[in-house]
Design brief:
With about 350 residues, this protein is of the alpha/beta class. It contains 13 helices and eleven strands. Strands 2-1-3-10-4-11 form a six-stranded mixed beta sheet, sandwiched between helices. A five-stranded mixed beta sheet has the order 7-6-8-5-9, with helices on both faces.
């Protein structure tokens, strides 16, 4: 009986000591941000949807990391690959996080493109700010009024994209090959440059996030011809969905495209982030994306917030990267760089 009580006393004391030590460590890590600069690396030029989300996040995140200064650093290049590389290779100290079109990089990683120095499965995923359906749009002065018109075009259809690794590039190539459309994808149009290219007549269209393109659609009369995602925005009823193009040989690929559309605005830190600091950043971002002031600010900007936790974001990326050899072969063929 006496020995039993001694064991219980030692166990309870050890447990109390461990919990107290962890709590002290967490409190110390929270104070770590006091006086520090946290950089959000946005893998596009200034302007455009990702930059908007990055600057909105920076504006409100500092509220939940007392004493921290949160800044945005634009690192464009190679369709988000350059920015993703920089985040992945940064020190895992919690002072560098990234926001970019990492969903497009799922295809690039599956295809084993050169220049990739990261493994998306090993990032420390922090959150996903929005699940964003993608849309294929064309300019109001083009002759294309319905999706079927694209297939009947007597000339190549010029589609703008930020780079060969971007989702805009990959989605356009894949849609073209799945539907038999003669797309000519033109890199070098990142952020809102593709919109300007459409207005100048340099481009016929582009594929991008609906929230980002909605102001351009509403003000410039651009036409939505296809929706890529699980759900269709109510104002786009009647517009065909990518799933309607499904054939037995393209089912796996189309399902992958739909799954990646769920990862609209993910945020990541480098691999091997200390667990306590990972927890602090995940909790701070969860509070940020539930902040009433941020939600009101997002409504005024006409961008959506559909928060996904870091744990669930990690699972979405892990699942998307685990594809059958048949799907990986199709991805490699369709996004081959010529």
């Amino acid at each position: 009986m006496g020995k039993g009580w001694v064991f219980i006393t030692v166990f309870v004391f050890s447990l109390f000591f461990t919990v107290s030590l962890y709590a002290a460590r967490e409190e110390g890590d929270k104070r770590f941000y006091d006086g520090k600069v946290l950089t959000i690396v946005v893998s596009t030029k200034a302007g455009g949807g990702f930059d908007t989300y990055g600057r909105m996040t920076a504006r409100f995140l500092k509220k939940y990391l007392p004493g921290a200064t949160v800044i945005v650093k634009n690192v464009p290049g190679a369709g988000h690959i350059v920015g993703a590389n920089e985040v992945y290779l940064s020190k895992p100290n919690g002072l560098t996080i990234g926001l970019g079109n990492y969903k497009g990089l799922i295809f690039a990683q599956l295809a084993r493109w050169e220049g990739i120095k990261f493994d998306l499965a090993k990032f420390s995923w922090l959150a996903n700010a929005a699940s964003d359906p993608q849309v294929l749009i064309v300019g109001k002065d083009t002759p294309f009024r319905h999706f079927r018109d694209l297939k009947d075009s007597p000339r190549p259809i010029k589609m703008g994209a930020g780079g060969v690794g971007s989702a805009a590039y990959i989605y356009a190539v894949m849609i073209g090959k799945i539907a038999g459309i003669n797309f000519k994808v033109v890199p070098g149009y990142s952020g809102n440059e593709a919109e300007m290219g459409m207005l100048r007549g340099e481009l016929d269209g582009q594929v991008g996030a609906y929230d980002s393109l909605r102001p351009f659609i509403e003000t410039q009369g651009a036409r939505v011809l296809l929706v890529i995602g699980r759900t269709r925005p109510k104002e786009l009823m009647g517009i065909p969905m990518i799933g309607e193009l499904e054939r037995p040989e393209t089912k796996g690929l189309i399902n992958l495209m739909i799954a990646t559309a769920e990862l609209g605005r993910p945020l990541a830190a480098p691999p091997n982030l200390p667990p306590v600091r990972l927890k602090i950043l995940r909790e701070a971002l969860a509070k940020t994306f539930h902040d009433p002031e941020l939600l009101d600010y997002a409504r005024r900007l006409k961008v959506s917030i559909t928060y996904t936790s870091g744990e669930d974001t990690q699972k979405l990326f892990t699942d998307a990267l685990h594809q059958s050899p048949e799907v990986i072969k199709m991805v490699k063929e369709m996004v081959k760089i010529e």
